Sequence to fold (735 residues):
Amino acid sequence: MSRRLLAWIGAAVVVVALVALAALPRLRPGNAATATSTAWGEPDLQGIWTSDGEIPLQRPARYANREFFTDEERAELDRQRAEAIGREADENRRSRGSEQDVGGAYNAAVFTTHKRMGRRTSMVVDPPDGRIPPLTPEAQKKRAAMREYQLALLQPTDLCKNKLPGCEGGSYGPVSPRRAEAPPFYVTVGAAGGGGAGGGAINRADGPEDRGLGERCMAAALPDFGGNTGFFLQIVQSPGRVSIFYDTGQGQGWQRIIPVTSSPHLPSNVRQWWGDSRGRWEGRTLVVDVTNFSPKSYFQGSQENLHLVERWTRVDANTVEYAVTIEDPTTWTKPWTVKQEYSKQSDQANRIYKEPRCHEGNYGMPALLSGARSQERAFAAKQGPDPAKECTAGCGGFALGFADTGEDSNPLAR
Amino acid sequence: MRHGLTGSVVTVAIVSAAVSAVISISVTRTAGQASRPARTVDGKPNFSGIWQALNEANWDLQAHDARPGMVTQQGVYPYDYARVPAAPVLALGAAAGVPGSIGVVQGDGQIPYTPEAAKIKQENGEHWIDRDPELKCYLPGIPRAMYMPYPFEIVQSTNKIQMAYEFTSTARTIHLDNVEPPPDDTYMGHSVAHWEGDTLVVDVTRFNGKNWFDRAGNFHSDALHLVERFTPISPDAIRYEVTIEDPKVFTRPWRIAMPLYRRLEPDAQLLEYRCIEFTEEFLYGNLRKQQLVKRWEGDTIIVDITRKVPPGDQLHDWYRR
Fold:
């Protein structure tokens, strides 16, 4: 009896082991199991990853309906860009001391991409033309309202007086009474125009909320494509959990944990800057559904109604493919999809700079606010110009330079 | 044949069930929650999950009485034990008090400060509201992040263990493999670990010395060296013990110890406590064009407490209802 029981248990152990083996996701031929599966049999996304190539978010018209550059085109674009960066520096030297010079020098050092062109002609892969779908009428209205407010604050500055591109859509005029109003939407990104509906920088520093999220050390957002400064992702997994540390945006990194679960999203009244992630495995792919974004979060004009479906796939030992479908029927007329490839970095070199210590060293914010207050005091004492006529955000240099758009160093934009 | 196959399948099913029952002895189940193996596939204690310290260590590592307020001032009597809540927390009543504690410092319960450091600790305590990095939402450092009143999550892999903290959405990576040291000193330390039997032993160095241990002003320098020991008490509790060494501040190494408890809610998850924005008024309020706090003297907040009691909410009104 006991021998028979032992035999049964032995047989059953074999069966359980076989079942466990069968349950392991199928490996791609040619990949060692250790390279792409965790010890517990889930697809292995672990390691430090980054996106190597410079790829524009949207496809330039001249490459319409072509998903990839040729190698020759990439080499030529790299050459043109290197020249453009040098030319930019020369032009700045010619106008030494101007706002554009100071802003441009900082931006050239910090925000100019030094990555080579990537393979793709755009990160947007759907729609097939590589362009973000049109904004809904509602989102266009929102964007126009924010732009109108931005221009009201810019109209008495030199930016509009000299008809510089940052004043596009506006004209030179007296200090607007709107300067005393609250902006129509929460101020989020630094770029003039806001890269979408609402949200852009405003030329005012009445308090910390007037400044962009970047200056407040809260710029990290989902989805994150690395921006012009690039980023590193560190992925660590345990059964049922995928942890991603985003080392992004000048010390503004953050820790994300994706529960792999079938449980529903958080109650809809619970809103978060980075939303609420729910993962599941579809074969070799981690599919993550993200909702519950905060109305203060911002991505290309989308705020609390943003819905992401991310797909993370280890396509080979050195590559993770990331695809995200971005949906918000209040912002875009249809969903769109971005695709990126991340390449594996050395685990041994502790390349990820994990400390998001922007806030701890944010001397910029108090300096900026106290600067604005001294200007006001000087003006009141008739010892300085009207601060309302000075441009501190959404103006010259910064807004027109590399920082916000990368356009000046991007031959694709010329 | 067909009968035979069916029979085999049934047998296997029964046996599998039996084996599953055997296996589940090493598995903890909680109503409504997925099973959690006590060990990982590589045979180590399984620390993956959401944890939280349930003690008063973040108030003061040492044993202490309950206090009437987070900030107190001398009352009408001149005795230290008769202090009363001070203005910054007065309006919060009993919600602003501090719970007592038996302390987490091991041995004689004393923290072996050098005489100079003891003076600094004393001053830190008196100027808590101005000096504690927690109030400014700065990265909390180790070991403090382990026992702040927020959950944290352990994602335990084979070569790396990620510890994610709800407070300010920060994290540290514990390296079980070879790794280069960080390029600069850090708030959260550089953690390298190995297993000693069932105990995870973590060696933490490369601190920048800007963190505190608690709200009582206990502090350290950039010479801080920690040896943390994580030992399972049960699948849902870890004994967390830290040996603290810092020759610039302490005359000898000393230890703290406490249990960490698993958050057993079936859908437990870390939420955001993105406190940078919560502290902007505190940090920059005096630099607003129109100040929300009406009395700033330089960068000092003068808090005038005016508590208008609405009709029907006067003292004792609730009792009469």
Q: What stands out?
A: The mean pLDDT of chain A is 82. The first helix of chain A runs from residue 2 to 23.
